[in-house]
Prior knowledge:
The structure holds two protein chains of two kinds.
Chain A: E1 17-18, E2 24-25, H1 30-49, H2 55-70, H3 77-80, E3 97-103, E4 119-125, E5 131-136, H4 143-150
Antiparallel strand pairs in A: 1-2, 3-4, 4-5
Helix pairs in contact in A: 1-2
Chain B: H1 2-14, H2 20-33, H3 42-51, H4 59-66, H5 78-81, H6 93-99, H7 115-129, H8 131-134, H9 141-149, E1 156-162, E2 171-177, E3 181-186, E4 191-195, E5 199-205, E6 208-213, H10 221-224
Antiparallel strand pairs in B: 1-2, 1-5, 2-3, 3-4, 5-6
Amino acid sequence: MYFAATNGGGAPYFISKMNMSGKKTNTSGSDGFQRLNFLYQASIVALNAVPHCPQITSVFGKNMISIGKKLQLKLDHSVKRTICKGCKVLLIPGKSVEVKIKPIPASRKRKSRRGNQRKIQEWKCMLCSCVKQFVLNPGYSLWAEQNMDST
Amino acid sequence: MAKKASRKELESIFYEPLPVDARITLEQQSHILGSTTKNLNKDENFLIEYMKPKTVADTEDLTAQFKKNFPLKNNKTLKDNKSKRTKKKLLTSIEKRKLGLHKLPKTGIKYASLAPLHQLWVEYMENNLNLEISASGANKDGLYQKIAKADYHGCLLMVTRSKCPSYIGAKGIVVQETKNTFQIICEEDKLKIIPKRDSVFTFNISRWTFTLFGNHMNIRPSERASRKFKSRPTIDL
Protein backbone atom coordinates (compact mmCIF):
# COMPACT_ATOMS: atom_id res chain seq x y z
CA MET A 1 0.00 0.00 0.00
CA TYR A 2 2.81 2.42 0.74
CA PHE A 3 5.17 3.62 -1.93
CA ALA A 4 8.79 2.68 -1.40
CA ALA A 5 9.44 5.34 1.16
CA THR A 6 12.95 4.22 1.87
CA ASN A 7 13.86 4.13 -1.78
CA GLY A 8 13.43 7.85 -2.18
CA GLY A 9 11.21 7.39 -5.21
CA GLY A 10 12.08 5.86 -8.54
CA ALA A 11 12.02 7.51 -11.93
CA PRO A 12 8.71 9.16 -12.74
CA TYR A 13 6.62 7.48 -15.37
CA PHE A 14 4.94 9.32 -18.18
CA ILE A 15 1.59 8.47 -19.64
CA SER A 16 1.42 8.17 -23.39
CA LYS A 17 -0.67 6.44 -25.97
CA MET A 18 0.69 4.71 -29.00
CA ASN A 19 -0.75 5.74 -32.34
CA MET A 20 -1.55 3.26 -35.03
CA SER A 21 1.66 4.30 -36.74
CA GLY A 22 3.60 3.75 -33.53
CA LYS A 23 4.14 7.42 -32.64
CA LYS A 24 3.62 8.48 -29.08
CA THR A 25 0.88 10.97 -28.31
CA ASN A 26 -0.04 12.44 -24.98
CA THR A 27 -3.31 11.67 -23.28
CA SER A 28 -5.38 14.54 -21.96
CA GLY A 29 -4.42 15.57 -18.48
CA SER A 30 -1.20 13.60 -18.55
CA ASP A 31 0.74 16.75 -17.71
CA GLY A 32 -1.22 17.16 -14.54
CA PHE A 33 -0.75 13.53 -13.54
CA GLN A 34 2.97 13.79 -14.16
CA ARG A 35 3.08 16.82 -11.95
CA LEU A 36 1.15 15.07 -9.17
CA ASN A 37 3.39 12.06 -9.45
CA PHE A 38 6.50 14.20 -9.28
CA LEU A 39 5.19 16.16 -6.27
CA TYR A 40 4.42 13.00 -4.33
CA GLN A 41 7.83 11.52 -4.95
CA ALA A 42 9.46 14.86 -4.18
CA SER A 43 7.71 15.02 -0.81
CA ILE A 44 9.06 11.58 0.10
CA VAL A 45 12.57 12.66 -0.91
CA ALA A 46 12.21 15.93 0.99
CA LEU A 47 11.05 14.20 4.18
CA ASN A 48 14.05 11.89 4.02
CA ALA A 49 16.43 14.77 3.30
CA VAL A 50 15.15 17.27 5.87
CA PRO A 51 13.40 15.25 8.59
CA HIS A 52 13.31 18.10 11.11
CA CYS A 53 11.30 20.35 8.80
CA PRO A 54 8.11 18.57 7.69
CA GLN A 55 6.65 21.91 6.58
CA ILE A 56 8.29 21.40 3.18
CA THR A 57 6.16 18.32 2.59
CA SER A 58 3.08 20.34 3.50
CA VAL A 59 3.95 22.71 0.64
CA PHE A 60 3.99 19.78 -1.76
CA GLY A 61 0.81 18.33 -0.31
CA LYS A 62 -1.03 21.62 -0.67
CA ASN A 63 0.05 21.90 -4.29
CA MET A 64 -1.04 18.33 -5.00
CA ILE A 65 -4.51 18.92 -3.65
CA SER A 66 -5.02 22.28 -5.34
CA ILE A 67 -3.77 21.00 -8.72
CA GLY A 68 -6.13 18.06 -8.37
CA LYS A 69 -8.98 20.49 -7.77
CA LYS A 70 -8.09 22.79 -10.65
CA LEU A 71 -7.53 20.12 -13.26
CA GLN A 72 -10.20 17.83 -11.81
CA LEU A 73 -7.82 14.96 -11.30
CA LYS A 74 -8.45 12.44 -8.58
CA LEU A 75 -5.76 11.24 -6.26
CA ASP A 76 -5.49 7.54 -5.71
CA HIS A 77 -6.55 6.15 -2.33
CA SER A 78 -3.05 5.05 -1.43
CA VAL A 79 -1.79 8.60 -2.06
CA LYS A 80 -4.66 10.41 -0.39
CA ARG A 81 -4.41 8.35 2.77
CA THR A 82 -0.85 9.47 3.33
CA ILE A 83 -1.66 13.19 3.17
CA CYS A 84 -2.78 14.71 6.45
CA LYS A 85 -6.16 16.42 6.17
CA GLY A 86 -5.23 19.30 8.40
CA CYS A 87 -1.72 20.36 7.55
CA LYS A 88 -1.23 18.39 4.28
CA VAL A 89 1.98 16.85 5.51
CA LEU A 90 3.17 13.53 4.11
CA LEU A 91 2.30 10.83 6.60
CA ILE A 92 4.79 8.03 7.07
CA PRO A 93 4.04 5.74 10.02
CA GLY A 94 6.75 6.16 12.58
CA LYS A 95 8.22 9.31 11.07
CA SER A 96 5.39 11.80 10.92
CA VAL A 97 2.41 9.83 12.24
CA GLU A 98 1.59 7.89 15.37
CA VAL A 99 -0.39 4.78 14.51
CA LYS A 100 -2.49 3.19 17.21
CA ILE A 101 -5.11 0.49 17.27
CA LYS A 102 -8.11 1.39 19.35
CA PRO A 103 -11.54 -0.09 19.97
CA ILE A 104 -14.28 1.52 17.93
CA PRO A 105 -15.77 4.50 19.80
CA ALA A 106 -19.19 4.03 21.28
CA SER A 107 -20.75 6.74 19.11
CA ARG A 108 -19.96 4.76 15.98
CA LYS A 109 -21.17 1.39 17.16
CA ARG A 110 -24.37 0.24 15.61
CA LYS A 111 -26.84 -0.64 18.27
CA SER A 112 -28.56 -3.25 16.22
CA ARG A 113 -25.51 -5.39 15.67
CA ARG A 114 -24.21 -6.68 18.93
CA GLY A 115 -20.99 -8.53 19.10
CA ASN A 116 -19.60 -6.17 16.45
CA GLN A 117 -16.14 -5.98 17.90
CA ARG A 118 -14.52 -3.79 15.28
CA LYS A 119 -11.27 -2.01 15.89
CA ILE A 120 -9.95 1.24 14.52
CA GLN A 121 -6.52 2.12 13.26
CA GLU A 122 -5.92 5.69 14.29
CA TRP A 123 -3.33 7.84 12.55
CA LYS A 124 -2.44 10.96 14.50
CA CYS A 125 -0.31 13.56 12.69
CA MET A 126 2.68 14.54 14.82
CA LEU A 127 2.64 18.11 13.58
CA CYS A 128 -0.97 19.23 13.78
CA SER A 129 -2.53 16.35 15.76
CA CYS A 130 -5.23 15.79 13.16
CA VAL A 131 -6.65 12.32 13.27
CA LYS A 132 -7.45 9.81 10.53
CA GLN A 133 -9.42 6.72 11.44
CA PHE A 134 -9.65 3.52 9.46
CA VAL A 135 -12.03 0.77 10.49
CA LEU A 136 -10.26 -2.58 10.46
CA ASN A 137 -12.35 -5.05 8.57
CA PRO A 138 -10.47 -8.16 7.49
CA GLY A 139 -12.77 -9.13 4.63
CA TYR A 140 -13.11 -5.65 3.11
CA SER A 141 -11.27 -4.26 0.08
CA LEU A 142 -11.79 -0.96 -1.71
CA TRP A 143 -13.80 -0.92 -4.92
CA ALA A 144 -10.83 0.31 -6.89
CA GLU A 145 -8.60 -2.39 -5.51
CA GLN A 146 -11.20 -5.05 -6.24
CA ASN A 147 -11.29 -4.16 -9.91
CA MET A 148 -7.53 -4.27 -10.14
CA ASP A 149 -7.47 -7.86 -8.92
CA SER A 150 -10.15 -9.11 -11.23
CA THR A 151 -9.03 -7.24 -14.40
CA MET B 1 36.45 15.94 62.36
CA ALA B 2 37.35 16.75 58.78
CA LYS B 3 33.71 16.41 57.75
CA LYS B 4 32.51 18.71 60.49
CA ALA B 5 35.10 21.30 59.57
CA SER B 6 34.04 21.22 55.90
CA ARG B 7 30.39 21.56 56.94
CA LYS B 8 31.17 24.58 59.03
CA GLU B 9 33.04 26.07 56.14
CA LEU B 10 30.03 25.56 53.87
CA GLU B 11 27.71 27.07 56.44
CA SER B 12 29.94 30.05 56.80
CA ILE B 13 29.76 30.52 53.04
CA PHE B 14 25.96 30.28 53.04
CA TYR B 15 25.39 32.43 56.08
CA GLU B 16 27.83 35.18 55.25
CA PRO B 17 26.48 38.67 55.57
CA LEU B 18 25.21 39.97 52.22
CA PRO B 19 27.30 42.43 50.18
CA VAL B 20 26.63 46.12 50.71
CA ASP B 21 24.65 46.72 47.47
CA ALA B 22 22.19 43.93 48.19
CA ARG B 23 21.60 45.18 51.71
CA ILE B 24 20.81 48.71 50.51
CA THR B 25 18.28 47.53 47.91
CA LEU B 26 16.58 45.31 50.48
CA GLU B 27 16.24 48.21 52.86
CA GLN B 28 14.74 50.33 50.12
CA GLN B 29 12.25 47.61 49.26
CA SER B 30 11.18 47.22 52.87
CA HIS B 31 10.69 50.96 53.06
CA ILE B 32 8.40 50.84 50.01
CA LEU B 33 6.46 47.88 51.34
CA GLY B 34 5.81 49.43 54.70
CA SER B 35 4.15 47.62 57.53
CA THR B 36 1.60 45.20 56.15
CA THR B 37 -1.00 43.93 58.52
CA LYS B 38 -3.13 41.76 56.28
CA ASN B 39 -1.72 39.37 53.73
CA LEU B 40 -4.68 39.90 51.45
CA ASN B 41 -3.98 43.56 50.98
CA LYS B 42 -0.28 43.06 50.57
CA ASP B 43 -0.36 43.93 46.89
CA GLU B 44 -2.57 46.93 47.45
CA ASN B 45 -0.34 48.26 50.16
CA PHE B 46 2.70 47.88 47.99
CA LEU B 47 1.01 49.71 45.14
CA ILE B 48 -0.19 52.53 47.35
CA GLU B 49 3.23 53.01 48.88
CA TYR B 50 4.74 52.98 45.40
CA MET B 51 2.26 55.48 43.99
CA LYS B 52 2.37 57.89 46.93
CA PRO B 53 5.50 59.79 45.98
CA LYS B 54 4.49 59.82 42.32
CA THR B 55 0.90 61.12 42.41
CA VAL B 56 -0.93 63.98 44.10
CA ALA B 57 -3.92 61.81 45.08
CA ASP B 58 -4.83 60.87 48.63
CA THR B 59 -4.57 57.35 49.91
CA GLU B 60 -8.37 57.13 50.09
CA ASP B 61 -8.71 57.94 46.38
CA LEU B 62 -6.08 55.39 45.57
CA THR B 63 -7.77 52.65 47.55
CA ALA B 64 -11.08 53.50 45.91
CA GLN B 65 -9.43 53.22 42.51
CA PHE B 66 -8.12 49.78 43.31
CA LYS B 67 -11.45 48.56 44.55
CA LYS B 68 -13.26 49.40 41.34
CA ASN B 69 -14.88 46.37 39.83
CA PHE B 70 -14.82 45.97 36.08
CA PRO B 71 -17.81 43.71 35.40
CA LEU B 72 -16.94 42.95 31.77
CA LYS B 73 -13.43 41.87 32.51
CA ASN B 74 -13.05 38.14 32.18
CA ASN B 75 -11.63 36.35 35.11
CA LYS B 76 -10.59 33.50 32.89
CA THR B 77 -7.00 32.89 31.93
CA LEU B 78 -5.89 33.19 28.31
CA LYS B 79 -6.01 29.44 27.85
CA ASP B 80 -9.70 29.27 28.71
CA ASN B 81 -10.48 32.13 26.36
CA LYS B 82 -9.18 30.24 23.34
CA SER B 83 -11.95 28.81 21.22
CA LYS B 84 -11.87 25.06 21.14
CA ARG B 85 -11.56 23.48 17.74
CA THR B 86 -15.01 22.44 16.62
CA LYS B 87 -13.87 20.62 13.47
CA LYS B 88 -11.44 17.85 14.16
CA LYS B 89 -9.63 17.89 10.86
CA LEU B 90 -9.53 21.40 9.43
CA LEU B 91 -7.10 23.91 10.86
CA THR B 92 -7.80 27.60 11.38
CA SER B 93 -5.39 30.05 9.82
CA ILE B 94 -4.06 31.04 13.24
CA GLU B 95 -3.19 27.42 13.93
CA LYS B 96 -1.57 27.10 10.53
CA ARG B 97 0.60 30.13 11.21
CA LYS B 98 1.64 28.73 14.57
CA LEU B 99 2.74 25.47 12.99
CA GLY B 100 4.84 27.44 10.53
CA LEU B 101 3.17 26.03 7.44
CA HIS B 102 3.34 29.29 5.53
CA LYS B 103 6.88 30.32 6.39
CA LEU B 104 9.82 28.00 6.07
CA PRO B 105 12.67 28.43 8.55
CA LYS B 106 15.43 30.73 7.35
CA THR B 107 18.26 28.49 8.51
CA GLY B 108 18.36 24.79 9.09
CA ILE B 109 17.76 23.41 5.63
CA LYS B 110 21.03 22.41 4.05
CA TYR B 111 21.75 22.83 0.36
CA ALA B 112 23.63 19.52 0.18
CA SER B 113 20.68 17.55 1.53
CA LEU B 114 18.43 18.79 -1.30
CA ALA B 115 20.62 17.32 -4.05
CA PRO B 116 18.42 14.20 -4.48
CA LEU B 117 15.37 16.44 -4.82
CA HIS B 118 17.06 18.34 -7.64
CA GLN B 119 17.99 15.09 -9.35
CA LEU B 120 14.37 13.95 -9.21
CA TRP B 121 13.27 17.25 -10.71
CA VAL B 122 15.73 16.92 -13.61
CA GLU B 123 14.40 13.43 -14.38
CA TYR B 124 10.83 14.72 -14.23
CA MET B 125 11.58 17.55 -16.64
CA GLU B 126 13.45 15.33 -19.07
CA ASN B 127 10.53 12.94 -19.19
CA ASN B 128 7.99 15.70 -19.39
CA LEU B 129 9.54 17.85 -22.08
CA ASN B 130 11.08 15.21 -24.31
CA LEU B 131 13.75 17.66 -25.32
CA GLU B 132 15.51 15.79 -28.11
CA ILE B 133 12.39 15.82 -30.23
CA SER B 134 10.72 19.05 -29.21
CA ALA B 135 13.71 21.37 -29.04
CA SER B 136 14.74 20.72 -32.61
CA GLY B 137 11.22 20.93 -34.02
CA ALA B 138 9.95 23.98 -35.87
CA ASN B 139 6.82 24.56 -33.81
CA LYS B 140 7.85 25.01 -30.22
CA ASP B 141 4.51 26.13 -28.84
CA GLY B 142 3.83 22.79 -27.24
CA LEU B 143 7.19 22.88 -25.53
CA TYR B 144 6.60 26.39 -24.22
CA GLN B 145 3.19 25.43 -22.89
CA LYS B 146 4.71 22.53 -21.02
CA ILE B 147 7.42 24.70 -19.53
CA ALA B 148 4.83 27.20 -18.36
CA LYS B 149 2.73 24.46 -16.76
CA ALA B 150 5.58 22.55 -15.20
CA ASP B 151 6.39 22.36 -11.53
CA TYR B 152 9.49 24.13 -10.30
CA HIS B 153 9.97 22.66 -6.84
CA GLY B 154 13.52 21.38 -6.82
CA CYS B 155 14.69 23.47 -9.77
CA LEU B 156 18.12 25.07 -9.65
CA LEU B 157 17.26 28.67 -10.51
CA MET B 158 19.55 31.58 -11.07
CA VAL B 159 18.55 35.22 -11.26
CA THR B 160 20.25 36.76 -14.27
CA ARG B 161 18.56 40.13 -14.59
CA SER B 162 16.54 42.11 -12.14
CA LYS B 163 15.50 45.64 -11.33
CA CYS B 164 16.92 45.22 -7.86
CA PRO B 165 20.68 44.65 -8.16
CA SER B 166 20.98 42.67 -4.96
CA TYR B 167 18.93 39.80 -6.37
CA ILE B 168 21.16 39.36 -9.41
CA GLY B 169 23.32 36.28 -9.15
CA ALA B 170 21.19 34.55 -6.54
CA LYS B 171 21.29 30.85 -7.22
CA GLY B 172 19.69 27.95 -5.44
CA ILE B 173 17.18 25.13 -5.27
CA VAL B 174 13.53 26.12 -5.15
CA VAL B 175 11.77 24.91 -2.01
CA GLN B 176 8.50 26.80 -2.20
CA GLU B 177 6.74 28.70 -4.93
CA THR B 178 4.02 31.20 -4.12
CA LYS B 179 2.03 33.66 -6.17
CA ASN B 180 4.69 36.34 -6.07
CA THR B 181 7.92 34.68 -4.95
CA PHE B 182 10.36 31.88 -5.39
CA GLN B 183 11.83 30.64 -2.13
CA ILE B 184 15.33 29.39 -2.73
CA ILE B 185 17.94 27.61 -0.62
CA CYS B 186 21.31 28.91 -1.71
CA GLU B 187 24.72 27.31 -1.24
CA GLU B 188 25.28 29.09 2.07
CA ASP B 189 22.29 27.10 3.50
CA LYS B 190 20.18 30.25 3.71
CA LEU B 191 16.60 30.66 2.61
CA LYS B 192 16.24 33.51 0.11
CA ILE B 193 12.84 34.85 -0.85
CA ILE B 194 13.01 36.36 -4.34
CA PRO B 195 9.97 38.13 -5.75
CA LYS B 196 9.05 37.15 -9.27
CA ARG B 197 8.29 40.65 -10.42
CA ASP B 198 10.90 42.46 -12.47
CA SER B 199 13.30 39.53 -12.47
CA VAL B 200 14.50 37.12 -15.10
CA PHE B 201 15.40 33.57 -14.06
CA THR B 202 17.34 30.88 -15.90
CA PHE B 203 17.74 27.16 -15.36
CA ASN B 204 19.59 24.36 -17.16
CA ILE B 205 18.49 20.91 -18.21
CA SER B 206 21.35 18.82 -19.65
CA ARG B 207 22.58 21.03 -22.48
CA TRP B 208 19.65 23.45 -22.82
CA THR B 209 19.15 26.72 -20.95
CA PHE B 210 15.70 28.15 -20.33
CA THR B 211 14.73 31.66 -19.26
CA LEU B 212 11.66 32.51 -17.26
CA PHE B 213 10.28 36.02 -17.18
CA GLY B 214 9.10 36.65 -13.66
CA ASN B 215 6.62 39.34 -14.66
CA HIS B 216 4.60 36.78 -16.60
CA MET B 217 4.76 34.12 -13.91
CA ASN B 218 2.97 36.01 -11.14
CA ILE B 219 0.47 33.19 -10.67
CA ARG B 220 0.02 30.55 -8.01
CA PRO B 221 1.71 27.28 -9.05
CA SER B 222 -1.54 25.32 -8.89
CA GLU B 223 -3.33 27.83 -11.09
CA ARG B 224 -0.47 27.82 -13.56
CA ALA B 225 -1.29 24.21 -14.35
CA SER B 226 -4.62 25.12 -15.90
CA ARG B 227 -3.75 28.51 -17.32
CA LYS B 228 -3.59 29.21 -21.04
CA PHE B 229 -0.69 31.54 -21.64
CA LYS B 230 -1.15 34.18 -24.29
CA SER B 231 1.66 36.28 -25.64
CA ARG B 232 2.06 39.43 -23.61
CA PRO B 233 4.22 42.42 -24.38
CA THR B 234 7.19 42.85 -22.08
CA ILE B 235 8.90 46.01 -21.05
CA ASP B 236 12.58 45.35 -20.80
CA LEU B 237 14.12 45.88 -17.38
